[in-house]
């Protein structure tokens, strides 16, 4: 009888046993599609790692959980699967229900970034509150466009992601409505100056499009 391993066997480098592939967890990132260590060794290594880091063992539901429901370790309630956020993990759902998941998220943001403001700035723009305050000081503490006091919106180039300045709510929204297009903004300026074609009242209920440079000024409607 040959001692060579079969195609359905794999040797665990931890316990050095030749085991069936069913004794290994799945891992799509590895060439053979299997975890490096067998299930029992992987569990032992995870437990040792948790103890080293001072992390307690995962909590288990005190009672059997029916199909279609899930137990939340934080609040201790058994809830429908829809009450748990989706995830790409094999289970398809996070370990904690949506309210508990949100609380944990806020706690993490507070611990790592000192608050949601810092988290938002770094995640979206790559700068922190310190850089924001420095840029605002360079602008004299006012909106970079209208000069209004206490602007709070960090403006950036949507193509490159580069930060351009700090604007007030109205100016920031205005650039967005004009899609950051210099051409659109130039046309808007021309329009406001009254140098574009306008509708002129030439008879009650009758209008004609005229250019201010060629015809008379449009009549003022009563």
TrEMBL record:
InterPro entries in alphabetical order: Endonuclease_7 (IPR004211), Endonuclease_7_sf (IPR038563), His-Me_finger_sf (IPR044925)
Pfam families listed in its UniProt record: Endonuclease_7
The protein's name in its UniProt record: Recombinase
Annotated source species: Micromonospora haikouensis
């Amino acid at each position: 009888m040959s001692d060579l391993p079969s195609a359905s066997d794999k040797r665990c480098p931890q316990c050095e046993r030749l085991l069936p592939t069913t004794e290994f967890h799945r891992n799509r990132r590895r060439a053979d599609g299997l975890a490096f260590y067998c299930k029992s060794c992987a569990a032992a290594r995870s437990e040792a790692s948790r103890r080293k880091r001072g992390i307690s063992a995962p909590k288990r539901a005190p009672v059997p959980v029916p199909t279609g429901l899930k137990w939340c370790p934080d609040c201790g309630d058994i809830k429908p699967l829809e009450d748990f956020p989706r995830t790409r993990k094999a289970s398809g759902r996070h370990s904690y229900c949506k309210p508990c998941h949100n609380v944990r998220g806020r706690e993490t943001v507070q611990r790592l970034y000192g608050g949601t403001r810092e988290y938002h700035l770094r995640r979206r723009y790559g700068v922190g509150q310190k850089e924001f305050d420095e840029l605002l000081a360079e602008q004299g503490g006012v909106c970079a466009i209208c000069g209004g006091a206490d602007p709070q919106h960090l403006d950036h180039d949507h193509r490159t992601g580069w930060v351009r300045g700090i604007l007030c709510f109205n100016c920031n929204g205005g650039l967005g409505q004009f899609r950051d297009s210099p051409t659109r903004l130039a046309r808007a300026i021309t329009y406001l100056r009254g140098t574009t074609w306008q509708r002129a009242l030439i008879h009650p209920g009758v209008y004609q499009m005229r250019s201010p440079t060629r015809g008379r000024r449009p009549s003022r409607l009563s």
